[in-house]
């Protein structure tokens, strides 16, 4: 189904979902959240999954990113079949290949911005110098170079979310997942964040999959999937050219 | 490596303070309890530990030094016959009743009749030679200065022991005994005070000095061979002291009490510490979940928690050492019997560290709620 919506010649999909099903039981009632969902996501693009709350978009993100197993169907990420992997193998896959940005910034209050970004890198087995270097580069890329020694309490909401993005970006992931990254931010900061995510997809060839019900984001995505009741209703390229939009509102940082 | 555990501990010290205090108090309680018990029951063997004899000969089967029975003076001969024994000294123990000048009622006292020569072994560590020489005066006694109040006397006062008139000629320190007040007198004075006809011509103990104290165990074994000089047993001073302390500890039930209390302290400390650590983990659960989403394994997160538990334990122990040392100094200045050997202290501190580690292990369960999927809401 996804092939019908392809708009430009593009490389093989980095994320593939085939007949993914997921349901949750609450008491005796079982509610199906995803109905045999099939989807391809490509690298170098910012793909937005939009839809009302409760439509299953967060669950889809959790399954595609290897945070949660599907009840049925298959998920292939970067050529790896995720459905058969153990908890440890999934952790290893996420460590090597994925980055996450959540609605809450989830930063450790005790660490400076630089340390927040460095922390996961050290667990990847990078040397101290390399980790420090990458962390600095990522913070500079999100425009926080001058503020990298500050703790979360000294940063604004938008800056905290940019630290969270730098933390994901410094891992140099092929897959970057963002869940409602702008919901907790005002218009200006939301704009900055979505522009950064878009730029990451363009400059690094990263697969950026973003879930949001924020209508402001629609115009900035390369591709928008509209979801409702566990199904994808439409798959289209938004009317406003995201390139022009993002260049027009590029943050000065 | 970013020192997440330590930085969090420093930054959120208020959050961790209850755990540090819990470990610190538990550690302090264990230390003080051990010091107090060792100090109190150590005074059961003050006759042995305050003296420089290497061997003690007494009635067979004597369980504690205060339970001695008379033995024949011939035993002294047997000891002197051994080529390794350089000196033998009698020690008369008299269980007596004290009547002081002030209205203190009857006080149960133990009179220690000792050799008054300057190089004598009995209480050589507690009595200076000039003080010891004052005992040569008939009826002269020396008491510990901490016992003056309970005896109702001052230096120079007269009192009665078993109806005989005695005079306090001086005070010493390190003479306090367990179960009664220790009163030091000369052998002659003690003989006069001993009104039990059974004790005539008998002594309670003989203390011997050896040419080579390191051979004490072997020589004691050799001396225990025969009964030709009447019934007696020879102990090394170390064994006899330990035996006396153990007798008191078990006889009074204090040993079991100490272990019971240590268990309670451990339990309470562990509950407070683990609850505090759990609260700290829950407080950062979203951050831990984010790290897990980014692929940092659960094992690595557990290590962070255990590291925090370790630092909490270490800080608590440092607190307890500082406060404990201070209290020990104060106790010593006030003649409170407290004694702490490095090994005992090490065991107490190890138990406190174990408390922190056990609390850390109990905390690991709460990491299960660090489910990254729960962040996607």
Automatic annotation (TrEMBL), chain A:
Coiled-coil zones: none
Molecular-function GO terms, alphabetical: ATP binding
One family name in Pfam for this protein: ABC_tran
CDD domains: ABC_MJ0796_LolCDE_FtsE
Protein known as: ABC transporter ATP-binding protein
SUPFAM superfamilies: P-loop containing nucleoside triphosphate hydrolases (SSF52540)
Keywords (A to Z) from UniProt: ATP-binding, Nucleotide-binding, Transport
ATP-binding listed as a keyword: yes
PANTHER family with a match to the protein in the record: IMPORT ATP-BINDING PROTEIN, TRANSPORTER, PUTATIVE-RELATED
Protein origin, superkingdom: Bacteria
Domain ABC transporter: 15-253
From TrEMBL, chain B:
Record-annotated ABC3 transporter permease C-terminal domain positions: 260-372
The entry's keywords: Cell membrane, Membrane, Transmembrane, Transmembrane helix, Transport
Residue ranges occupied by any MacB-like periplasmic core domain in the UniProt entry: 35-223
Transmembrane segments annotated in the record for this chain: 16-41, 246-272, 309-331, 343-364
Database matches in Pfam families: FtsX, MacB_PCD
Membrane topology of the entry: Multi-pass membrane protein
Signal peptide annotation: none
Transmembrane among keywords: yes
Protein name: FtsX-like permease family protein
